[in-house]
Design brief:
This protein is mainly alpha-helical. Among the domains are: 163 residues, no CATH class; 44 residues. It is 61% helix and 5% strand. A hairpin with a 6-residue loop joins β4 and β5. The longest helix is centred in the middle third of the chain and has 65 residues. The radius of gyration is 32 Å and the shape is elongated.
């Protein structure tokens, strides 16, 4: 069996070699989708090219580190790490178990990743970011093939086994090379060809993608915090119910003791009959206090922890306040998306 490098790879190839060989699986940018950054690299004047690139970076909000990438696509990012570590040691069952809720990239998200990758290739900003982007694109290609395969094998996943040919195919995709053809970078273009209208339209599309990523991230944090708060309420209610049952039991025992007492108590000084004083212990239970965000950081995922520390704790103290802020933020971003989507048409 052929062995592959464990390192994610990207290549610039000649148009004549623009084919998938039997020994290597190549992944290309979406057809008919020329990158805005590639257009900029074709500008002949160096000063104009640098100015256009600087402006484009501000417009497109490129990823600066791998944490930003994971925050945008947490499920796909986590699965990509698993796939990178098991690209030559996996089964249908292990993939199914680790894929969890991972979904394919939308066309807009895929183009957005390609834009970021091409920027990294052209500007050579961050090797770590470039590797992460390549890994996501490879993982997305792997998912496409795996989902197609799963739909054709609808039996219980414990019973599905790869044939040798199927295993070889998935191994090739897991070790795929991401490709940019040289012809894209070699051509020349005038600044005027990069239309202002196209730039603005693309800007709104990119903003929608970023907002959608943020909305999904905030929804994940919201669900986590909601579960923690629900569990906290349940534990408090159970504690209160248990304490109330114990109090009821105590009162019942005291009452039974009084009713069962047959002896008459006489005051030795006056000779009068005395009613026995019944002493019932007081019932007290601590009032439920709202959970503090700082106190639940160890209970959430690392990505959620970053959001809570950076965006919630500076303005909120309690978990309930955080839930309210997240809900309002999600609604606000959804309204913004509606506006940007209308302008991107």
């Amino acid at each position: 069996m052929k062995k592959y490098s464990s390192k994610a790879d990207v290549a610039l190839i000649d148009p004549a070699l623009n084919t998938k060989s039997n020994n290597q699986y190549l992944i290309y940018p979406p057809a008919n989708k020329t990158s805005h950054f590639i257009k900029i690299t074709r500008i002949k004047n160096q000063d104009k090219r640098a100015a256009a690139m600087k402006k484009a970076v501000r417009m497109y909000n490129v990823f600066e580190n791998s944490l930003e990438i994971r925050s945008a696509l947490p499920s796909l990012y986590d699965f990509s790490l698993w796939l990178a570590a098991h690209k030559e040691d996996f089964s249908y069952h292990s993939i199914k178990r680790n894929i969890k809720q991972t979904t394919l990239l939308s066309e807009a998200q895929e183009i957005f990743l390609w834009e970021n990758l091409i920027y990294q290739i052209v500007e050579k900003q961050s090797l770590v970011v470039k590797e992460a982007l390549i890994r996501l694109l490879v993982t997305n290609e792997f998912l496409k093939t795996f989902i197609d395969f799963s739909q054709q094998n609808d039996t219980y996943h414990e019973d599905v086994l790869f044939t040798e040919e199927q295993y070889q195919k998935f191994t090739m995709i897991a070790n795929a090379t991401v490709v940019i053809t040289k012809e894209l970078l070699d051509a020349e273009i005038n600044v005027s060809e990069i239309g202002i209208k196209d730039q603005k339209q693309q800007l709104f599309i990119e903003k929608c993608i970023l907002l959608q990523n943020k909305i999904e991230m905030y929804k994940e944090v919201f669900v986590e915090l909601k579960k923690i708060n629900t569990l906290h309420d349940k534990e408090y209610d159970q504690g209160f119910s248990k304490a109330l049952q114990q109090q009821t039991k105590t009162i019942t025992l005291v009452a039974d003791k009084v009713l069962s007492t047959k002896e008459t108590i006489i005051d030795v000084y006056t000779g009068d009959e005395i009613d026995e004083q019944v002493k019932i212990p007081s019932f007290s239970f601590e009032v439920k206090k709202p959970l503090q965000l700082q106190s639940i950081l160890h209970k959430v995922k690392e990505a959620s922890k970053v959001v809570i520390e950076k965006e919630l704790i500076p303005v909120c103290k309690t978990l309930l306040e955080g839930l309210h802020l997240l809900r309002q933020t999600i609604l606000y971003y959804q309204r913004c998306m509606d506006i940007f989507s209308s302008k991107a048409l």
